């Protein structure tokens, strides 16, 4: 089989897992309007803390970028960091609306596991190529998942529209395409070992995304 780009090959080879992570029942419950507010609040509490760890992760990706990278490539990651500030402000505002106390949240195990994985990627043992691949896929899963909640026949509740628009918007999709191009460029000339490591990190991302959705969709007793 002739090899295409890393990202296209990855998505083809891991179609079922990717599809499970981007068509989860939690997202389906937002899309069809049946979501329980308790589940949404649980997701928001946990995701805020995930995003806080993600800030450090993205900073580490920027530091690992090769010095001879074109400025426009550096600026894509810089844009990602900048966007995180408004993201955090949005979480705080939204948490207020839902009467969530973000400081009092206890991290659940799937979130702890995901944050531990990010920490591992932040380490100097993880090459840039591997970190940027995981970065792309983490953003893509959210983008594709939330895009489905904006389709014509979706019945997303009014109070969740601002949430799904954040990550399901065409602008956010463009950003994931830019990340995808960065990944493919970085991995084109990488060693077989780095390509394998990047593939494994991406599989792990999909597994962790699935568990994160499972956690959010868990029916509270
Ligand atoms: C579990 C989980 N997976 C992926 C994302 C996606 N994501 C991480 S940071 C960020 C802000 C923009 O870069 C976005 C959309 C998430 N939030 N939570």
From TrEMBL:
GO terms for cellular component: cytosol. One of its GO terms (biological process) is thiamine metabolic process. Residues 15-216 form the Thiaminase-2/PQQC domain. It comes from the Eukaryota. InterPro entries: Haem_Oase-like_multi-hlx, TenA_E, Thiaminase-2/PQQC, Thiamine_Salvage_TenA. Substrate binds at residues 47, 87, 139. The active site is at residue 209. SUPFAM superfamilies: Heme oxygenase-like (SSF48613). Pfam families: TENA_THI-4. This is Thiaminase-2/PQQC domain-containing protein. It comes from Physcomitrium patens (Spreading-leaved earth moss).
């Amino acid at each position: 089989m002739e090899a295409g780009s890393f990202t296209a090959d990855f998505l083809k080879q891991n179609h079922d897992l990717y599809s499970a992570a981007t068509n989860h029942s939690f997202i389906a419950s937002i899309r069809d309007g049946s979501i329980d507010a308790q589940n949404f609040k649980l997701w928001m509490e946990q995701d805020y803390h995930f995003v806080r760890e993600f800030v450090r992760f993205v900073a580490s990706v920027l530091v690992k970028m090769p010095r001879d990278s074109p400025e426009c490539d550096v600026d894509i990651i810089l844009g990602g960091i900048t966007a995180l500030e408004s993201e955090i402000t949005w979480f705080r505002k939204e948490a207020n609306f839902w009467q969530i106390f973000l400081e009092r949240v206890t991290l659940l195990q799937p979130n702890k596991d995901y944050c531990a994985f990010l920490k591992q990627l932040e380490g100097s043992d993880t090459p840039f190529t591997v970190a940027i691949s995981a970065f792309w896929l983490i953003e893509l899963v959210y983008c594709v998942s939330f895009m489905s909640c904006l389709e014509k026949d979706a019945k997303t509740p009014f109070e969740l529209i601002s949430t799904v628009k954040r990550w399901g918007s065409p602008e956010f999709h463009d950003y994931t395409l830019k990340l995808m191009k960065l990944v493919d460029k970085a991995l084109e000339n990488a060693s077989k070992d780095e390509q394998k490591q990047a593939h494994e990190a991406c599989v792990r991302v999909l597994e962790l995304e699935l568990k994160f959705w499972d956690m959010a969709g868990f029916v509270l007793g």
